[in-house]
Amino acid sequence: FSSILVALHKKYCTRSFISMALSLRRTSNRAREFILTRTYSFDRLNRYLRQLVLFVYRFSALRLSSFCIHLLYFVSLAFLGSLAMVLLKPSDHSFSPSYVDMLFMSTSALTVSGLGTVETERLSSAQLAVLTLLMFVGGEVFVTLLGLLLRRTSENDKREASAVRVDAVSVELEAADPSRVVTIDSIEPADGSVAMAEEKDLRSSCIRWLRYIVSSYIATFHLFGTSLLLVYIYRVSHARDILRKKGINVFLFSLSTTVSSFANGGLIATNENMAAFNRDPTMLLLMIAQVLAGNLLFPLFLRLAIWTLKRITKREEFRHMLKSTSETRFSPLLPGKQTSYLSLTVVGLMTALLVMFCSMDWNGAVFDGLNSFEKIVAALFMAVNSRHAGENSIDPSLISPAVLVFIIVMM
Asked: Which residue spans traverse the membrane (predicted)?
């Protein structure tokens, strides 16, 4: 009887094991089919998206003018940004801004005009992130990079073809003498065509390297700017306490401030702009470097970067970019003499405003409570930002009328 029970138990266990194995195999097959189906669906969707992006790129690059591309770019992003601002809820639940206000804020951030109709502290972190993204894609350096990426090569080909075009002439041909017929086995290109092909390759290589340089330039200043601001805020309790009292995320503030300064957007997460940090000269100096690198001295820094790469790599492309700036058709890349004149003009105007600011308002209410070094840095911050960025470290209503007039002239 016990042997019968053992046999039945083994038989039952074997059947259970077999059924379990079959069930696991069916489940595995279904899972494999599901994964393959989803993978194929995602792959097909990815392929469709790539084709769509490629179609839009080719259509915009070949059929639309530069003006139409810029207009479509800014108008579409302004409306998309306003929709995102409306859908995202502000941090102040009692605050319900209208769509016109959000459209104005979106357009102001995208065009880096620095104007606002609502207090930035009443916006949520998500809305502030949208404004930061809009300032980034609307900054001058990023827009010039897009121009490089959308550079059309067909215009160069047409220009070169028209340059070597020969007008048709009528020639009467006589019957050839068979004894004078010469058979040519091979034809070698003329020296002119070889030189033209090499020049075209060199110009294309310069454009490609210029894209890499500008992209690295943008990434470097944003990465180091955000990191240095983060380190400073975490190490200085005064700046950290201001953000904690206002309920502003430290990383988001550092990133947004860096983007705003580099793009010369003028929108800061605090209602007082940078006046809340007028006793933090190190932070103001970091932002001054961002403002100069993103607009006023971008041609100088770009030329210095190319010159440094030429000295290190000894490549012909960098020498050609410095020598023949007009062939790249990249407006920020100016000849050496024009770059020097532009840089001297920027430094001269900033120095003039700094001297006038300190001489007129040194003992005034505008610098009340600041020591000498903080006054100089605050005045320098205003001198740099008055040209384009629109950020301020003091109360503008306390500035003397003569200095205000000079600021208006500089703007």
From this structure: 67-87, 99-118, 130-150, 209-234, 246-263, 283-306, 341-362
Question: Do residue 333 and residue 231 come from a single domain?
Answer: yes
DSSP 139: S
Structure tokens at 143: 């827009």
8 Å CB contact between 176 and 331: no
Q: Are residues 103 and 216 in the same domain?
A: no
Q: Are residues 287 and 257 in contact, defined by beta-carbon separation less than 8 angstroms?
A: yes
DSSP string, 229-268: HHHHHHH-HHHHHHHHHHT--HHHHHHHHHHHHHHT----
Rounded to the nearest integer, the mean pLDDT of the chain is: 81
* pLDDT of the residue at 227: 95
Q: By C-alpha distance, which of 313, 312, 287, 290 is closest to 301? A: 290
Instruction: Count up the domains in the chain and report the number.
Output: 3
**Cα gap 385→6, rounded to integer Å:** 91
pLDDT, tens digit (0-9, with 9 covering 90-100), for 250-280:
999 999 999 999 999 889 999 888 988 989 9
In the numeric block, which tokens belong to residue 42? 């995602």
